[in-house]
Specification:
258 residues, alpha/beta, TIM Barrel, 5-stranded parallel β-sheet, 4-stranded mixed β-sheet, 11 helices, globular
Length: 258
């Protein structure tokens, strides 16, 4: 993959802006729901402030329900030049749905995009990073430009089927804040930052790509925001390209392979 001039690797920093969608779907208790609400109330603004400091535009994978519940917040994100991409409607597991129900998820979510943001999303990330056997066909039939759910490569690639193409921006559970800081709370902030810096240094050495996923309700809580700040600072010193998902996808399709 050819890199943009002057850049040594691609760092795809993205955010799953779930708010309390998953907790609502699962019928969680008020305390669990309140932890989700921390995202739109506090976490998102801390994240946006850091991105503003470094002049970065990134991607926020957002459920349709969150767009409807917090339209002013989502509009504020978009107005700063960030990409809003689709992340289900109420953070459903697509692998548990029949095709007609999965199609309905896309229908109502895309309607939320059009009603609030006046455009259809270019990118998609499956909630819980779980596709069904129908998800690829649905994405292609609806002309999505890219997906960021699969884990079978260290670098972006293109899926082709019946003349249609879908860019894959691969991810990895090791490069997600949620398992370490929320689900299991297994390591310290410093340990997580050190591990992620090792990954961006590896991407730098091989002139490749690395994707790191964060959640505003997680990375935006307390001193955790320093992980984001220090990660970006290190990546920029290594001359990383840190774009939106849609920009990577367009680059892969039209420039990166030439």
């Amino acid at each position: 993959m050819k890199l943009p001039s002057g850049r040594n690797f691609i760092l795809f920093i993205s955010f799953d802006f779930d708010a309390e969608s998953a907790e609502i779907l699962q019928g969680k208790d008020p305390i669990a729901i309140s932890r989700g609400r921390f995202g739109p109330k506090v976490g998102i603004w801390k994240v946006l402030n850091v991105l503003d400091q470094y002049g970065l535009k990134t991607t926020f994978f957002t459920p349709g329900w969150v767009i409807e519940k917090y339209p002013d917040v989502v509009k504020s994100i978009a107005e700063k030049g960030h990409e809003i991409a689709l992340h289900g409607y109420l953070h459903e597991r697509l692998d548990e749905l029949k095709r007609q129900d999965e199609e309905k998820i896309f229908d109502i979510s895309e309607r939320a995009f059009m009603n609030i943001l006046s455009y259809k999303p270019y990118g998609f990330r499956a909630p819980y990073w779980r596709w069904s056997e129908n998800t690829l066909d649905i994405l292609l039939s609806r002309n999505y430009l890219y997906d960021s759910s699969l884990m079978d490569s260290e670098d972006p690639y293109v899926l082709s089927k019946k003349g249609k193409r879908l860019v894959v921006l691969p991810i990895d559970w090791r490069l997600d804040d949620w398992p370490y800081l929320e689900a299991y709370r297994s390591i310290s902030n410093k340990e997580l930052l050190d591990m992620w810096i090792e990954e961006i240094e590896y991407a730098y050495r091989r002139r490749g790509y690395v994707s790191i996923t964060m959640h505003p309700q997680c990375i935006g809580r307390g001193a955790r925001i320093m992980i984001l700040m220090n990660l970006i600072s290190k990546a920029l010193k290594l001359r990383a390209w840190i774009p939106r998902g849609v920009d990577i996808a367009k680059y892969i399709l039209y420039k990166g392979s030439k």
